[in-house]
Amino acid sequence: MSTHVEALIVGAGFAGLATALELRAAGVDDIALIERADDVGGTWRENRYPGVACDIPAHLYALGRHPWPHWSHEFAPGDEIQNYLRTVADRSGVRALIRFDTPMTASRWHEDRWHVETPTGDIHARALLLACGRLTDPSLPDIPGSEGFPGVLTHTARWDPATEVDGRRIAVIGTGASGVQLVPELVRRGAHVTLFQRTAAWVLPRGGHGYTDAERARFAAAPEEMAQLRERLFVDGEARYASRSGDAAAAAAASDQALAHLADQIPDRRLRAALTPDYAFGCKRVLLSDDFYPAVASAAVTLEPSALERIEGHTLISATGTRHEVDLVVFATGFRATEQPYARFVTGESGETLADHWSSGMTSVLSTVVPGFPNLFVLNGPNASLGHNSSILMLEEQAAYAARTLAKLTDGEILRPDPAAEADYCRRIDERAAPTAWITGGCHNWYVDERSGRLTLLWPGTVAEFRAQMRAADGSEFLREPVTGVRRSTT
Fold first, then answer.
1. Cα–Cα separations (whole angstroms), residue 165 to 171, 223, 268
2. Among residues of the chain, what percentage have pLDDT more than 70?
3. Taking the CB of the first residue and of the last residue of the chain, which one, N or C, has fewer CB atoms within 10 A?
4. 485: left (phi over 0), alpha (psi -120 to 50) or beta
5. Pfam families under this entry (predicted)?
6. CATH number assigned to the domain covering 2-137+336-471
7. What is the largest CA-CA distance in the chain?
8. Are 482 and 415 spatial neighbours (Cβ–Cβ below 8 Å)?
């Protein structure tokens, strides 16, 4: 059985829901949405480890079309964000458009539309909108001996909430965002943690507070107050761009604050030295926590300031040769963010897959459309993430661009992104990125693709600049004449 729609969205996380809302607002109503899992949520459905929360203020980490007065804390816990997305899907009517348990197994452009294969039937769509996310497929290091570990070995994105923690010896591999959230919660639950740290993180105080019943009631009664709060949070976020991107004065002030935070919470000089970063502030993701350092300083945590090299039975052996006996191993090692897993399932006009097109790193026009892939829009793809503000703002802008572009599409018209526009866009990205801490800061980060050395994940500018760019798009990013001499894919 096959289905024909005007627009097909792949993924039901923040990006997929935002795209559906924007399409409908623009008058594009013949849409469908497929989701490989059995629920909405994306990142917040997959990541259920103890302590998971957002490090962007909740009122800024919500869809502009669906503000939420009921957040319990300034920084929302993961399950609360997941429930918010369920509420959005229900109240907006988008849930009725979603086919759950329906992964995209293949898609190819043929003649004038996308032919998408799923286990429940083919879907033919004039436009394909990829909202597949980037924080769902774990990055697992190849550690010799892993297959012989007799205990539980997992990743933060595959954590089983039923896992017993109290009294267990748990190794956490990594001190990025998930590791910094996980370790204090494991300690609170009675575990002894061995923390493997390859690279120390820059950590700033988190702060934040719980919202009272009175505050939540006031937000519900006065939406304009929520809007004002969101605008203040946005302005605060934009101000962080300078320190994250490498402005010398701003980075110095922020790094001084982080080092003072470290000194206040870690009195032991040797431990403090091990936790002090040796690269520029902002080069890697800056973390927020008030309880990570106290947990590491406690008797419940053993810091191993080196990488995990191999596993022998219950024994984990570090790069320094130190041996640690553990019962459970949790990899807090992030995701394959620069190599999008869906790309191999998308075949364009010439028979090239999106993975082939991105074999040296992700490229695009306006971070959203890709030459060789007509009528395709990629949300949360090349240079669409942020290191200083809410990425929800970025994907909403991409969704709005896709919606108004498709709303103006005439019968028979095909949107073919211009390869020259892609080359120019990537050149401008590279020029803007070149002096930033992400490139020059002396660290290995997940923003830069190792294959090319290019900044392919982050947008090297402010949200305001991205908005201006997207809203100024006038169609000149697309070719005016049909491509000639192109081998079309076959079904």
1. 12, 42, 27
2. 97
3. N
4. left
5. Pyr_redox_3
6. 3.50.50.60
7. 70
8. no
The DSSP bridge pattern shows strands 454-455 and 169-173 to be: unpaired
Q: Which burial class, exposed, middle or buried, applies to 120 when counting CB atoms under 10 A from its CB (0-12, 13-18, 19+)?
A: middle
Distant-in-sequence, close-in-space partners of 94: CB < 8 Å, separation ≥ 6: 17, 20, 21, 33, 88
Q: Which residues partner with 193 through β-bridges?
A: 170, 301
Q: How far apart are alpha carbons 355 and 341 in whole angstroms?
A: 8
C-alpha to C-alpha distance for 164 and 168, rounded to whole angstroms: 8
Model's pTM, two decimal places? Answer: 0.95
CA angle (383 as vertex; 378, 385 as ends), nearest 5:
90
Quick one: which H or E segment has residue 128? strand 122-130
CB contact at 8 A, 108 and 489: yes
User: Where are the domains positioned within the chain?
Assistant: 2-137+336-471, 146-202+247-331
- Residues contacting residue 225 through CB under 8 Å, at least 6 positions apart: 218, 219
pLDDT digits (tens, 9 = 90+) for 194-214: 999 999 999 999 999 999 999
List Cα–Cα distances, 258 to 179, 264, 348, 371, 432, in angstroms: 18, 10, 46, 43, 26
**Residues pairing with 152 in the sheet:** 328
Secondary structure (3-state) at 256: helix
Looking at residue 201, the DSSP 8-state letter turns out to be: P
Spatial separation of the C-alpha atoms in residues 195 and 175, rounded to whole Å? 8
> Which residues does 98 contact at the CB level (< 8 Å), separation at least 6?
12, 33, 34, 35, 40, 89
CB-based burial of residue 215 (10 Å sphere; 0-12 exposed, 13-18 middle, 19+ buried)? middle
Q: What is the pLDDT of residue 108?
A: 98
The CATH number of the domain covering residues in 146-202+247-331: 3.50.50.60
Neighbours of 256 (CB within 10 A): 11
**C-alpha R_g of the chain:** 23
Helix (H) or strand (E) holding 236: helix 223-239
Q: What is the pLDDT of residue 483?
A: 47
296 touches 271 (CB < 8 A): yes
Beta partners for residue 308, in sequence order:
318
Please say whether the beta carbons of 251 and 442 come within 8 A.
no
